[in-house]
Amino acid sequence: MADASDLFDLSGRVALVTGGSRGLGREMVLAFARKGADVVIASRKQGACEALAKQVESETGRQALAVAAHAGRWEDCDALVEAAYARFGRVDVLVNNAGMSPLYPSLPEVTEELYDKVLSVNLKGPFRLSSVIGARMAEGEGGSIINVSSVAAVTPSPAEIPYGAAKAGLNNLTLGLARAFGPRVRVNCIMPGPFLTDISKAWDLEAFQANAKRTIPLGRGGEPDEVVGAALYFASDASRYTTGAILKIDGGAVYPAA
Question: What is the pLDDT of residues 99-142, one digit of tens each?
Fold first, then answer.
């Protein structure tokens, strides 16, 4: 039986993370590299990806590829896959982390453009990347796909209905892909609650914290690095008998139906 610490070792593997230049994606990129993986960092801004790639290489000695890609565009997803395989020849871990939930004044005022953009980034892109990379994983040495959903998938607020619908679709996609690509590829999902990433700078933090003390059993929002344990579990051999799982990480904030 392997030593517990060895189960989380990612040496020799390649991890691709969308939305990887900031927030939860950034924390996962750094965690994977610190555990021995080479990384592909994808987001819309090339400069942000390159800055993190330099940090990864200087701090960990691992290789890092920065790729500007819009996760909601089919052609960008295909180009990202080709760039990753051209550089490393493989992808062992795919993290579909990119997401967006723009504010809208009311439901009737949600434009077709906004709706399509939200569904594309949160659902269409993960479908395309998972389909192409998952098929290559299944034909090769296997791998792990990690989707990053949201508690909005099960308890959407009125301000995030298109987003919640897309994330509910991502939960469903997780289950379907686990069956489609098993047994060589494991497909799991992290379902975060409120995390204090850079997005939280736009919140009324005083009001949020007061509400969190009343409504969240752990009494606070999550710190970005608190996603790392789940990400490493799903990425590594520690979860070798886990697929089709949806792991809620929200301090106990919501209670999804069984």
Answer: 999 999 999 999 999 999 999 999 999 999 999 999 999 999 99
User: How far, in Å, are 1, 83, 131, 214 from residue 57 at the CA level?
Assistant: 32, 18, 29, 42
Residue 61 structure tokens: 């000695």
Alpha carbon distance 129, 145 (integer Å): 10
The rounded distance, in Å, linking the Cα atoms of 183 and 95 is 19
Which domains does the chain carry?
4-194+230-247 (3.40.50.720)
SS3 label, residue 70: coil
- Tell me the C-alpha to C-alpha distance, in Å, between residue 42 and each of 29, 84, 244: 10, 10, 24
pTM, 2 dp? 0.94
Q: Which residues pair with residue 40 across a beta bridge?
A: 16, 65
In whole angstroms, how far apart are CA 138 and each of 28, 174, 192, 233, 249?
23, 16, 27, 20, 28
DSSP category for residue 90: -
Active site residues: 163
